[in-house]
Fold this protein.
Amino acid sequence: MSARHPATLRLSLEEFSRHGGLAGPHKDGWGVAWYEDGDVRLVKEREPASDSACVRFLQDHPFSTRCAVSHIRRATQGAHALRNCQPFARELGGTMHVFAHNGDLDRGALRSRLPLGCERPVGESDSEHAFCALLARLRPVWSRDIGTPPLDERLDALAAFAGELRALGPANFLYADGDALFAHGHARMQAGGHIAPPGLHWLERRCAGPGGSFDAAGLAITADAAQQRVALFASVPLTAEAGWRPLAAGELIAARGGTIAGRRQAAPGRVCAARTPEAHCSR
């Protein structure tokens, strides 16, 4: 979520999981990160959300933020351990960066094609390696003493990185840098059991004023101020309303203050379909 003003979020991750048809396999941990006072609060566990006292605490004590990222894990790579649960959070350039990935990347190719810099993964997942490699790419952008780099420069760096990641397997990810929330759509497991686009959906909403709300399966957002605007990103639409739009394969969107601030789109013929023995990039 990206919002113009702080919004109060109440999460029920188990219900959220069921809404997406993911309750069965996605039992290997969960996490949620939100920005507050220039820092990030990160709560995650390796236990299923349905058995979590932390989830119940968040339901009873909802938090308020302008940007939040949550993730429910299905362990495809890495041990069933806290260190492999997402989102991941790291400091770079004096700000906190948050990352969550949905997909399964070729680990051997990932190591050889996306080398690490100063950052090193704590766990064994392909997702954390990708995050560390992304931070290595972004370090030159954030190392100058200019504060937050221009949005277009960050978008260009992220789009180039996403193009390389797509060649290694499904590469849907959410990334936040304290100023903007970036969403990259690719491909994911669909209801028919095949991997195909879309991998993410998005929705822009306006709340009527203080007390205005957005309610979906597993998520409730209450506006804390008038003229609230909210941009939501999710693997599948959270409601039946017509406003949900799929991200095209290779599309990268930047949301700032609840509105779309920029985007990049992969060139035609440059999108890898999925990580399968037959997967390839066409030109």
Observations:
- Helices lie at 13-19, 53-60, 107-113, 126-142, 151-166.
- The chain has five helices and 17 strands.
- The two ends are 34 Å apart (CA to CA).
- Residues 2-265 form a domain with the Glutamine Phosphoribosylpyrophosphate, subunit 1, domain 1 fold (CATH 3.60.20.10).
